[in-house]
Specification:
By secondary structure, this protein is an alpha/beta fold. It has helices spanning about 5-10, 10-20, 25-35, 50-55, 70-85, 115-120, 125-140, 165-175, 190-205, 205-215, and strands at about 40-45, 65-70, 90-95, 105-110, 140-155, 180-185, 185-190, 220, 220-230. β2 (about 65-70), α5 and β3 form a beta-alpha-beta unit. α2 crosses α9 (about 190-205) and α9 (about 190-205) runs antiparallel to α10. About 40% of the residues are buried.
Length: about 230
């Protein structure tokens, strides 16, 4: 089984097969609308991946700038944005901490299951890396700009639980003043066999075996929503 890093670099189609089945309840859109009205605003999507969030918001925003470390993933983001009604959009390979946009140029920054990696991939410097990302967010957002993050609270469980490898991230978000709530973002597949094949590719053999054993066509998932506004 490939690592998650390998999937992001070379398995965009397989990844899209998974995330296209996530949140069949539509709770991500509902959560975003409760926090920020993006209509007519300039939006940044960090860690855009295959463009799920960028594509979701494209019909409503004034502009979209979608960034990811994986050019491979962004190829699908471009396809999504080309098909949208949005005229002002850009995709680019970029690090969360070094965004190729001017200061004070965006109203909303969104990021799904991505900002946490700046800490996870450099555990010895996790706080410095998160602080660097936040400083960059403050640079590029206009006064009153909003940040909305989605981070995992467990795939395969029906109630939220903080994951051990994200413990520092949860604490940092709380100490930095982010508000939070949790939502369900369950995956819905055509059959347990399809669920095992697609979800098992990303989440591993243990998840694959559980899906088949419990005959799960719907795989539960809990997601934390974290948001903050810049003064």
């Amino acid at each position: 089984m490939p690592t998650q890093e390998q999937i992001y670099l070379s398995e965009a189609e397989q990844y899209e097969a998974l995330v296209s089945r996530e949140d069949y309840q539509g709770n991500i859109q509902k959560a975003l609308d409760e926090i920020a009205n993006v209509d007519g605003l300039d939006v940044l999507d960090l860690g855009a991946g295959t463009g799920r969030l960028a594509g979701l918001l494209a019909p409503r925003v004034r502009s979209m700038r979608a960034f990811d470390l994986s050019a491979h993933m962004l190829s699908l983001t471009r396809d999504r944005l080309r098909k949208s009604q949005l005229k002002d959009w850009v995709t680019a390979v970029a690090d969360h901490r070094f965004l190729p946009v001017p200061s004070d140029s965006a109203d909303v920054m969104i990021s799904g299951w991505s900002v946490s990696y700046v800490a996870v991939w450099k555990p010895e410097r996790w706080k410095e890396e998160l602080d660097a990302w936040y400083a960059e967010a403050q640079r590029v957002l206009r006064r009153g700009g909003q940040i909305v993050l989605f981070e995992s609270l467990g795939t395969g469980n029906e109630t939220p639980r903080q994951l051990a490898h994200l413990e520092n991230v949860y604490r940092w978000l709380d100490e930095t003043g982010f508000q939070n709530k949790w939502i369900r973002t369950d995956y819905k597949f055509d059959s347990p066999e399809q669920a095992a094949e697609i979800a098992g590719f990303f989440f591993g053999d243990e998840m694959r075996a559980r899906i088949l054993h419990e005959k799960l066509a719907v795989l539960p998932e809990c997601t934390g929503v974290y948001w903050n506004s810049l003064a």
